[in-house]
Predict the structure of Methyltransferase domain-containing protein.
Amino acid sequence: MSTTHNSLPASSDKHHDGHGEASLYHDSHGHAWSGNPNYTLTQLIPELRINLGSSLDIGSGEGADAAWLASLGWKAVGLEPSGVAVERSRELSSNATFIQGKVPQDLDRCGGPFDLVTGFYIPIAGEDAWRAIARQVADGGYLIYVHHNLDELRAKGHPLLGRDDLLMPFDAADLAPSGAWEIVVHETRHREIVGGHGHHHHLDDVLVLKRRKK
């Protein structure tokens, strides 16, 4: 969904695309995103056959992913720094809970741990923020982390940063010790999208982890 990948701390008010909250939401004509759940999420949930439970979508934007999960029967929560986006999320779905907050300092407000934690195109900066997110996953739960494909970003001329600036899924896989996590999916996938800021991105780097039960 992004258009520019700048150096963004995980606690930033900026969205993953490098636009500030004001430019992305206040200045947009209508909704910034398509209003549909992320294509890769809609493919992964039936593939993984995860039992319904609690879910947390980090960087939930205007709420489409959390709303979709709630419609399936998940007890869905979305965490999003933009107050405007949170308002739009609440208008979209009354079945999901949306919290205005940042990573990592507001994660404890979300009520975890969760059976499913998702993060799509979010600016995770550094290993500490990643580990804070990983701690939200319950034993036996899943963590889905997706970003735009690196080769596609290079082809579009985006600046590529180190993991201390923007942690990509393939880097994050290195931070998942095999004794604690099972790597379920670790690949690049094509995605379908119509409308919204990210319509020009067609490849996702996808990481799905399952926390081993103690």
User: Anything to note?
Assistant: The two ends are 36 Å apart (CA to CA). DSSP finds seven helices and seven strands in the chain. The helical segments are 21-26, 39-48, 64-72, 83-92, 127-134, 150-155, 169-173.
